[in-house]
Amino acid sequence: MTENLSALSLHQKIQSGERSAVAVLEETYRRIDALDGKVGAFNSLSRDLAFETAQAVDQKVKAGETLPILAGVPLAVKDNINVKGYPTTCSSKILHGYVSPYDATATLKVKAHLMPIVGKTNLDEFAMGSSTENSATRITRNPWDLDRVPGGSSGGSAAAVASSQTLLSLGSDTGGSVRQPASLCGLVGLKPTYGLVSRYGLVAFASSLDQISPFARNVKDTAALLQILAGFDTRDSSSLQGDVPNYLQTIDQPVSKLRVGVISELNGEGMQPEVAAAFQASLDTFRKLGAEIQTFSIPSIKYAVASYYIIATAEASSNLARFDGVRYGLREEGEDIYNTYCKTRAQGFGPEVKRRIVLGTFALSSGYYDAYYGKAQKIRQLLKHEFDKVWAHVDVLVCPTSPTTAFKIGEKTNDPVSMYLSDIATIPVNLVGIPAINIPCGFDDLKLPIGLQLMGPHRSEETLFRVAHAFEQATGLCNLTPAELSLV
Ligand code: GLN
């Protein structure tokens, strides 16, 4: 069965001819058909596209060709990333009927690597949320406990991998939307350095924060998928120039003389006790790996969530202006163009998206700009300086990824602020543009996964992978599968 393999070993079996890519894909869809009614990870499936790719893989294997890395390994894609000829809904009513006329750069890259794209996954509408409950499409459940949320906003992509419907998926992370669901679902999820992965073809939420990001069940598979996604793209003006290192080449190197930093503002205090305990145990693991551990204060962290909700909503209010009933998806005709805009947007957007458009428009309105947006940008700058000072002393910073394990469906839906605080540890990373990875580090009393976040300076993905891999080897916490679902 493929669900017990790593993505890299599945790829090797396909390359060697031991498994056919078509047979692997058939098995994948059998699993999706059997499980997704319960889990709810997918908004739509793209069988034609996936089988076309899998057939091409098998032909190349027969012809004796060497395949690109991860060729033949099925992939799920978050439904805010364009795949040509297939719907992109962003789990919003406003995109009803919209079919992508082009591929995102990330999509082109996975296609060039012959990875079958099996379907598009559910998300909080326009990636706004931390539980996937803001989706207008469906409820996605956490495979570790079907009464609980998978996290969000990339909850569908996380649930797809946690239930082994696919071994790999793509999400997007603006304030934690890959790392937090990875934490709640026992997965690895990496938010790359801002600009490392092209945003072309990702539906913009907050452009200065958004990054397409990979999910997998272990660190090596995550590194392999990032290898495919990373690199300069002329079609994204914020894309980073420069060579991308070969992550898998250095990932096994020992982590001697590692300097690990703890952020005093995110040391587990005030978090769920089991999360705090698992974090302390993780520090012991680092000590056993020979690391030196020091504590630092990053005082502006206490303003990060507030600044984020000004900056992200300001950018969203501008980015979402394009959904006007004229160019994309839904149109509710009014007596004139203005009324068409109003009716379409009133009916098309859900409550959280509206809340954010109103908040963002207010923050940018004349007279308030300096008081809110200007101030939030200053805090962002301050936060950058504070992180930069710490990088002189440490290789990685660590903290719990999420203050709690997966919460119950409905538990936080009436309290947006408590939902916003789910991202207290992930948001600072997006504000300063650095990379960070979530890896599993334990379980709570209900056997729900707990996640650890490792952060590094700009473009330190190679180090993060090496350290995360060493940690994963030391703890054995990888390729986790919820028992209940492995029986299906
Ligand atoms: N949960 C955060 C929010 O609601 C982050 C979302 C994201 O990363 N896309 O904005």
Could you please describe the fold and organization of this structure?
The chain has about 500 residues and is an alpha/beta fold. The chain has a domain of about 280 residues: Amidase signature (AS) domain (Amidase signature (AS) enzymes, Alpha-Beta Complex), CATH 3.90.1300.10. Helix content is about 40%, strand content about 10%. Strands 1-3-2-4-6-5-10-11-9-7-8 form an eleven-stranded mixed β-sheet, with helices on both faces. A hairpin with a 5-residue loop joins strand 10 and strand 11. Helix 2 packs antiparallel against helix 3. It starts with 6 loop residues before the first helix and ends with a helix. The structure holds glutamine. The site of glutamine has 13 residues, from loops.
pLDDT averaged over residues: 96
Question: How many helical stretches?
Answer: 17
The CATH superfamily of the domain at 2-254 and 464-485 is identified as: Amidase signature (AS) domain
Distance between the termini: 12 Å
What class would the helix/strand composition place it in? Answer: alpha/beta
Helix content: 25-40%
- List each distinct ligand once: glutamine
**Radius of gyration of CA atoms, rounded to a whole number:** 21 Å
Q: Helix and strand string, N-terminal first? A: HHEHEHEHEHEEHHEHEHHHHEHHEEHH
- Strand tally: 11
Name some characteristics of this structure.
single chain; 488 residues; alpha/beta; Amidase signature (AS) enzymes; 11-stranded mixed beta sheet; 17 helices; 11 strands; globular; binds glutamine
Short description:
The chain is an alpha/beta fold. The chain is built from 17 helices and eleven strands. The protein has helices at 7-16, 21-39, 47-62, 105-112, 155-162, 179-185, 219-229, 247-250, 273-288, 304-319, 337-348, 351-364, 370-391, 416-420, 427-432, 461-475, 483-486; strands spanning 42-45, 75-78, 117-121, 168-173, 188-191, 211-216, 259-263, 292-296, 396-400, 436-443, 449-455.
